[in-house]
Design a protein that fits this description.
The structure is a homodimer.
Chain A: H1 7-14, H2 18-25, H3 35-48, H4 54-58, E1 66-71, H5 80-93, E2 97-102, H6 107-119, E3 124-134, H7 139-142, E4 146-152, E5 159-163, H8 165-178, E6 185-189, H9 202-217, E7 224-227, H10 233-246, E8 251-254, H11 257-269, E9 279-284, H12 287-291, E10 297-300, H13 303-315, E11 322-326, E12 330-331, H14 341-346
Parallel strand pairs in A: 1-2, 1-3, 3-4, 4-5, 5-11, 6-7, 6-8, 8-9, 9-10
Antiparallel strand pairs in A: 10-12
Chain lengths: 354, 354
Amino acid sequence: MSSRVTLADVARRAGVSRTAASFVLSGRTDMRISETTQQRVLAAADELGYRPNITARSLRTAVTGTIGLISDTITISPYAGEVIQGAADTALEHDRLVFVAETSGDRDVEHGLLQEMLDRQVDAFLYAAMFTQVREPPELVRDYPFVLLNCLAESFDAPAVLPDETEAGATAARALLDAGHTDRIHVIGGRHDTAETPGGVVAGRERMAGVEAALADAGTAPVSVTECVWHAPEYGYRAVSDLLERHRPSALICLNDRLAFGAYQALHQHGLRVPDDVSVISFDDSDLASWLRPALTSVALPHYELGKTAVMLLVENRREPGPVRVPMPLRERASVAPPGHVTVRRHNQVARRD
Amino acid sequence: MSSRVTLADVARRAGVSRTAASFVLSGRTDMRISETTQQRVLAAADELGYRPNITARSLRTAVTGTIGLISDTITISPYAGEVIQGAADTALEHDRLVFVAETSGDRDVEHGLLQEMLDRQVDAFLYAAMFTQVREPPELVRDYPFVLLNCLAESFDAPAVLPDETEAGATAARALLDAGHTDRIHVIGGRHDTAETPGGVVAGRERMAGVEAALADAGTAPVSVTECVWHAPEYGYRAVSDLLERHRPSALICLNDRLAFGAYQALHQHGLRVPDDVSVISFDDSDLASWLRPALTSVALPHYELGKTAVMLLVENRREPGPVRVPMPLRERASVAPPGHVTVRRHNQVARRD
């Protein structure tokens, strides 16, 4: 049987944009669309037997068709743009617009801009953090449909969208195991257990839980875990420089691409090649991953999908509490290879294999 | 005499947020601000002799206090987040909110979202490009207050905010001249004169005009200009690898940080050190610049300032056509030094000095 006729099909047949078709078919007469275009769209819909779907219909009950995206800080991650784009694109597909504002983590600013948004009758909120963390959304937000984006609430259950960090950790560990690494795996970055974030950050705890579980399943464990700040390559450089004084790793699991960049710099300085001597695997799949030589294998943060999924929860009015986990895919490049034969020969010792 | 009492002074004295103070003093009763807070703000304003400024007053004439930011693409640059933040922060300081949407450069999408924004009575538009270029804002936008952000219109005069790329080019060239480089300067990236962008891009043409003018003032010129795509380090790597087959540069001007990263990789592979053998200077001042070893001297793109300046033009209702140029400051790090003595000795020749 023929598949369902979509709005895109109607738009194509009528030779107009999807948005224009949507306006005509939803009966909006305020959008300055020419009579000819309206006729073309209606004719195309008739010919194809188009029926609007229920999701689109339910949107008509929205008051203003606007969503307020409130973020702690937009610029901490260069990929905030992708989260915003995922949210804005998806909103527009459902005839909604997104207000974007950031609080710099300041409660007064947050309160003020919430008021500004409510003043403009925002229908719903996305409450976002730019890296995975525990946050406390203000009382005011909880009176409206809202979704936590890249954060978790501690004191109550709420709909939330988060990357599947634990599975990502397991993915990274399994990629090394599959390449034959077992007993000389070291971890750089750990849970981000530092003076400022004692006990680590959410992404760090979850990634490490996945790494350790997957290695344990294979009967092994990391030889060492260096806890450090993830913010800049410098910390990875220092951690790996120190490590190389005492160990000859076959593989490094770096907790993000910045640390991996620093690891490359330190390995290079010690005359060790990636991946011939040492394999490196990482998380985030930022631009950096493809820029390094050799290109870095990394488990991708799904920025665009996070924004998109959060808006879809609002659009579909899905109010189940608890996190929706967005998969983090492995981007395989050139930084993982079987354990380093060169290193083994150079040090005149034989690597143990399990 | 004492300086003018600001809203921030009143807010501080009253112990409330600037936004809350603004709401109270603008007489808005719809913002759920407690009676006590209102009293405190009014008392503080009295005590300090606060008078609202004219800019704030003129905003009361705005219909909805919203600005639509329409961008070709938000994610092409990881720094789009900073532009958005500069715009959103500045708007909020003036009791406005920003809608963010992107068109992917598609005219139909652009038209549709313009309609969506007008449907919500947006007062004004920012029409943005994520790298400096010539763009044609749609007719519809021109009926409203609007500012071009990071782009220029070709067919008519319009208020626009752009980085001062020409002066940035001169800044980079002068930094090398000041360090003593004169006759072995090579340029990597050029005007971005490629098959897809014949004649180059705006940023490329302007940066190169500045570079060439400043070198000409010192009686010199680049030995070579390699035209290539700027998008990834790979292109810089290839250009510099080729260059080193024929030349021994004392300094490289790379048209952005990505190309400079590739230049580092190629120099390293040829056993040349930065800055001992070859100085490198660049543009953008992305995160990459501080992550490289040694850290890269770069002329900064003022992302936050661009967003801020564009909103201020709207807020102050400044309608003069033609671009406002935002300065690009030099961020001096460790990649520029006097011409490489090591290289000179290694090749048994004496570098000429003017």
